[in-house]
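Backbone-to-sequence.
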């Protein structure tokens, strides 16, 4: 199923998890939730690995993304 798309199951799952995290980080109503808690909820419990993966996918850190999209700057 994934071979024709040039991806793997693991890459697909990681991409979906990062997309969910990005959506929640951009939601001002979730601004009181820590970035680590959002990442953990979506199956990315290692803060450093999450930050590296988010930066690789979106070109900025999770905290920078949150600050730019919502104006909220709290934690990393």
């Amino acid at each position: 199923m994934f071979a024709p798309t040039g991806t793997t199951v693991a890459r697909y799952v990681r991409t979906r998890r990062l997309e969910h995290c990005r959506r929640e980080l951009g939601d001002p109503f979730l601004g009181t939730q820590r970035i680590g808690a959002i990442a953990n909820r979506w199956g990315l419990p290692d803060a450093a690995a999450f930050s590296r993966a988010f930066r690789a996918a979106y070109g900025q850190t999770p905290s920078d993304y949150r600050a730019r999209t919502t104006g909220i700057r709290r934690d990393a």
